[in-house]
Amino acid sequence: MSSFGVFGALQLPLAFGLLRLSTEGRPAFDHAIATIHRALDGGVRILDTADSYALSDSDLHYGETLARTAVETWHGPQETVRIVTKMGMARPKGRWMPNARPTHLKKMLDGSLTALKTDALFMLLLHGNDPGTPFEDSLATLAEMQRAGKVVHLGLCNVDVAEIRQAQRHFRVAAIQNELSVINRKSAATGTLELARREGIAFMAHRPLGGHAKTDTLEKNRAMKPIATKYSVSPHQAALASLLDVGAPLLPVFGATSAAHVDASLAANALRLNDADRTALAEKISFGATAEGLETLEPVTPPDAALGQSPGTSPEVVIVMGIQGAGKSTLVQRYVDAGYERLNRDLMGGSLDDLLPILDTHLREGRTRVVLDNTYPTRASRWWLTRIAHRRGVPVRCHYLATPLKEALINVVLRVLDRYGTLPGPDELKELAKSDPNLPPPGALARFAACFEPPMADEGFAAIEETPFVRVPGPSLGGSQRALLLDVDGTLRKTRSGEIYPRDPDDIEVLPGRTQVLQRYVDTVWKLFFVSNQSGIASGHVSIEAVRAGFARTAELLGVPIDEFAFCPHTAFPAGCFCRKPMPGLGVWLARQHGLSLKDSIMVGDMDSDRQFAEAIGAQYQSADAFFA
């Protein structure tokens, strides 16, 4: 018997996954218990579940309750069974949504401990890397749980080598659960399986038959047919046997919804491939990988103090990183002018990974002054780049543009206005981005901010140079005119009919006290603007002509001059434009058109999006109730 890390030696190197017994189309509870018992009777000693193995958020921890009940009611040696659970996913209305925020993980831990009736989980895996949460924060939370004695062993799901190495800074990674099958061998090809083998980490292969939706493709798999025919087994059993033949630390996680399906998978363990089978398989598929990149490398020491100055004259690779709209292209030009070669995905096409072999070739050929610019928001996104440079003996410097999200959004809006003179809608932005790579949608900036991990010296940087953001005063963002930026519906007017917004000018009624207050600002030379979200246009509930007519009627009823009706006509969900509040687009556009000083202006509104809009453009904010009191 081989050892599978913290699981020890296993008579049967298979784990039983409870996903299909717990989610959509699941069998009755008693039937599921009987199916799990069949697996345990057959020698399985590892049950794989998750807090999110359920129908929805109202059904969380169902799979854990199933696992615990199955063990409690089994007549075999219960103490030999290990339950592996996962967290980091949510199930709103039955959907699968990543949620690895520290608050969510801590809440789910309490639920898992209760469902499994234990003081400490045997093994907890992070279900996935949540793009809305810095990976570092999720890892630190797991480590905190372990230090508190609530988790014995920790592991990861759906990760690569870089993310595993990142996690090892926080805790010992006891298990990895990645997809691996004869259909999908990515985790082997990219070195994840080899890393697990070298470091004694159990590798739990989920979807060992390619996933429930793809199992039929095994019937036609040219590598499996000869084995299935030779041993008179199904292609599915041949595929599972091929994985089992890889040996420790590989531990396939199979699923089943009936005793017959359990028996079929268990039978694959009895099939023994010989050397001739392995030779024939190797001609078609491989579970091996290059060991390159798995070794631990020490940071390269810079040859002289000049490395701390940019641009330098010594060999170095420079990563210019920061949020979209931070001004990376402008900074990179300084390096290019100083003789550095620029590698940029937008200019060269492809992905960030495609730049890695190009960088390696440059360094191998002695072209050792290179600058790469991209967002590089996470440690994992920077990991391979630094290792390639270290392998070639070239130090790496990080030049980080520390631009806040709200300033980056303004920069992108200014870029859009400079190039196109207007604020495009979501579909227009997508179309323009095909030929203009420096035109990210708002969601891209939000994703950077959500997952950003600051650069640190232990990543292998010989130096980190941080440039704080400073906006240069000038006419590009307005002038000195003070303004009232006024939300409309709920702030200045309501409908007579009770509708949320008017479809007809005759349905408009101005709220009390508005005219008198606004007139005082007009008398002291403030300009007045309507700033409104009108998603009813995109949804077809109201025409753009009716919206304009409604604004004109509102201004008429107020009896004060309104200098501009600024509104967003695009969809509310999902918001994909820069002009929908709280995005800063309309404020920036008005500032440029009318010479406004946004810091001296006031946004008046009745919703949180109005307050956030004021913060985004640097204006003051007052609620409608307080302003018109």
Count of helices?
Answer: 25
Helix content: 25-40%
Supply the CATH superfamily name of the largest domain: NADP-dependent oxidoreductase domain
Shape: globular
Q: Domains counted in the coordinates: how many?
A: 3
The CATH topology of the largest domain comes to: TIM Barrel
- Strand elements, count: 22
Q: End-to-end span in angstroms?
A: 79 Å
**Low-confidence runs:** none
Tell me, what is the CATH class of the largest domain? Alpha Beta
Sheet/helix structural class:
alpha/beta
Spatial arrangement of strands, main beta sheet: 1-2-3-6-7-8-9-10
Tell me, rounded to a whole number, the average pLDDT. 93
| CATH architecture name of the largest domain | Alpha-Beta Barrel
**Quick one: biggest sheet?**
8 strands, parallel, barrel
- How much beta, percentage-wise? 15-25%
Radius of gyration: 30 Å
Which tags fit this structure?
5-stranded parallel sheet, 8-stranded parallel barrel, Rossmann fold, 38% helix, globular, single chain, 25 helices, 629 residues, 22 strands, TIM Barrel, alpha/beta
